[in-house]
Structure formats: C-alpha cells, structure tokens
Amino acid sequence: AYLRVEGVMYSTARQHTRNSLIFFYPQGNKLLAPVPGCIQYIYSTGNSAKFAVKHQLRAPDGTKNPFDKWKVDYPAAIYSRSLASELEDVGTEDIYCHFARCPLSAELVIVLPLVQV
To answer: Are 114 and 99 contacting, i.e. CB atoms less than 8 angstroms apart?
Structure first.
C-alpha cells in the first residue's frame, strides 16, 4: 500500500522500505522530539488516512554516537536494528520527515533524517 501526501510518497515496509521510514511526533504531540519508525499499515478513518507505525528502538545504553560532533550539519544517530513490537497510530499531520537507515553492525543502524527544505 502507498499514499501520496502533498507530493510526498509514503508506503508500507512490505511495499517499499525506503518510503516507509519516517520521523513522527509520538502520540501526535509536537512538543516532543520526532522519533524514527517504520510504516507497517496504511488505512483510512472517515475522511483521513492514518499509518500504523513501529518505533525504531533506541541503541543499547552506553552506545556512542560518532556523529555527535557534526550534529548541527549532519544529524545522524545510532539506533537498534530492531523495531518495537507495538504499533502506534500516526496521522499524516504528525509526520516530520522520511529518514535514511544504513546498517552499522548486526545490531545497530545509522538513522539520518531527510528533511525537505
């Protein structure tokens, strides 16, 4: 399944992994920092579309982020390869941006927000 919102394509992980990787505001709260997740399902509720998303899990405590010194210009971070088991409902208005995910090791990935300017 896929959905285009304001010219941006979103899809489920099964359809197209890269278009399923999003940063979103948890529980729709824009006072919180956006978190990375992966779209599992796209569905409609009345007149609006929603995504069922699994959070990208944090890296284990003590994991060093080698990208911290470039955070302003290159906001990459280290996360676990695993996704949460629970799904969170995310509205299209709660999406911040897509992200790139690159393997770092068998357990870790690099996550880089892809903010459109």
So the answer is: yes
